[in-house]
Design a protein that fits this description.
With about 450 residues, the protein is of the alpha/beta class. The chain has 11 helices and 15 strands. Helix content is about 30%, strand content about 20%. It comes from Paenacidovorax caeni.
């Protein structure tokens, strides 16, 4: 088992910067803005022969009694409970605050191994200027600069030392094809993305609060269902471009788009009480452009009457007609209604997006389609299709070779797409068809 290190501290002391330094990544959003991180954020790190897991947490207020700060405090307390060692991060330049004392009192009561780390300590004398932090009663103070990487290596060594880790065994490296299926949950703000993931997990893993924009980062959570491993990615809600004012929200949008592009399957979540908006159509269009397999789910289905349901179904048929290959489900994340069929569609969409299409079958199907309906003649030429093969997966790409294929109409491409989809049961994934015209050796000769 990898040891777990939890980063704890008040807002804006540099926990996310230290998280990125320890994991050698840029997974956590970093900005000079207090309260940016809200959920628990997990990452993998390695130093020498030893691997470890790091948990980034939001600004901690142990006595928060209400609102989103209470939800953030619950996330931090859960991270501390899961960890083997706690790294308490303070601001070396701001000095000790009353909130630091509250956090220190909370950590002392737990009795868990704890390191007191003074961040932003570049250029400071550790003996004199950091002496005030000893009053927190947590022992030695370790000065670091997460932004510049100073003292971070020694910090990891100190964190892992009391755990008495055994020598790691060489397992021969990761096995090919054993990675989890990446499932991103995308949609507008406040449609219930975090609530849905919490329902799947059976715990309050993510901050779910009745306020748009609660989730700011793309949070990954490992999950296993019926022996199959998944990586659930909760994304920030995407609003219209003209309504994104804060710089933080612009970072969140970038993280969400990156999460969609890196996912294998995207669950597009709609709000039954709001209907299908222009922004829902924009998000769906981006998913289609990215080539991701997609499943559509309408949340809060229990909160609308029969008339609203009928109008919503018609709206989906018209406004999201370009995703007609995707399965549609009506669910209630809060009441756990309709969630089983969603998983069936997710697995089916991933299987379709990664299916293998043998060249002989593709070529036979292509020639049968041409015999059934020949391409339209343009001028004095008629496109001639010779053979087809698979050019890629997720999304599936079929490459067709022949002569004068630049004359093939979009309507005929849709006809071929329908034949290929039916043969290979390609449900829930976009299908791309590429035409490659053979070079004419006599074109340059007199």
């Amino acid at each position: 088992m990898k040891p777990v290190i939890a980063l704890v501290g008040r807002p804006n002391v540099g926990k996310s910067t230290l998280f990125n330094r320890l994991t050698k990544s840029r997974d956590a959003i970093v900005a000079d803005f207090a309260g940016l991180t809200r959920d628990r954020h997990y990452g993998n790190g390695r130093q020498g022969k030893y691997e470890y897991i790091v948990i980034d947490t939001g600004g901690f207020e142990p006595d928060a009694s209400s609102g989103i700060f209470r939800e953030m405090a619950k996330q931090t307390q859960q991270a501390v409970a899961e960890s083997d060692v706690v790294v308490f991060v303070v601001d070396a330049r701001a000095g000790v605050s009353a909130q630091d004392h509250d956090i220190a009192n909370y950590l002392r009561r737990l009795g868990k191994p704890c390191l007191l780390v003074a961040n932003k300590a570049e250029g400071m004398q550790s003996g004199v200027q950091l002496s005030e932090f000893y009053e927190l009663g947590l022992g030695e103070v370790y000065p670091v600069s997460a932004a510049h990487g100073q003292g971070v290596r020694g910090l990891v060594e100190q964190a892992l030392e009391p755990l008495n880790l055994p020598e790691p065994e060489d397992d021969g490296g990761p096995q090919e094809g054993s990675g989890p299926v990446k499932l991103a949950v995308a949609g507008r703000p406040n449609v219930g993305k975090s609530t849905l993931i919490n329902t799947w997990l059976g715990e309050e893993r993510l901050v779910a609060f009745d306020m748009p924009g609660t989730t700011r980062d793309a949070i990954s959570v490992p999950f296993e269902r019926q022996g199959q491993k998944f990586e659930l990615i909760d994304t920030a809600g995407l609003r219209r471009k003209g309504r994104v004012f804060e710089a933080i929200e612009k970072f969140s949008v970038v993280k969400t788009l990156q999460a969609i592009e890196s996912a294998n399957v995207v669950l597009l979540l709609l709000d039954a009480t709001q209907g299908v908006t222009d922004q829902d159509a924009h998000i769906a269009g981006y998913i289609l452009e990215s080539g991701r397999a997609v499943v559509i789910a309408v949340n809060k289905w229990d909160a609308v009457d029969d008339y609203q349901r009928q109008m919503l179904e018609r709206s989906i048929e018209t406004r999201l007609s370009f995703l007609k290959f995707a399965n549609l489900h009506f669910i209630s994340a809060q009441k756990r209604q309709g969630l089983g069929p969603v998983w069936t569609s997710i697995v089916q969409a991933h299987k379709a997006a990664t299916c293998k299409m043998p060249t002989p079958i593709l070529t036979r199907l292509l020639l049968e389609s041409v015999q059934f309906q020949t391409p339209k003649r343009v001028g004095g030429y008629r496109p001639k299709m010779r053979y087809a093969h698979q050019g890629g997966m997720n999304p599936p790409l079929i490459v067709i070779h022949g002569n004068s294929l630049e004359l093939v109409t979009d309507a005929y491409k849709r006809f071929l797409e329908g034949r290929f989809r039916k043969e290979f049961n390609l449900v829930g994934t976009p299908l791309r068809i590429e035409m490659k015209t053979s070079h004419n050796p006599f074109v340059d000769k007199e």
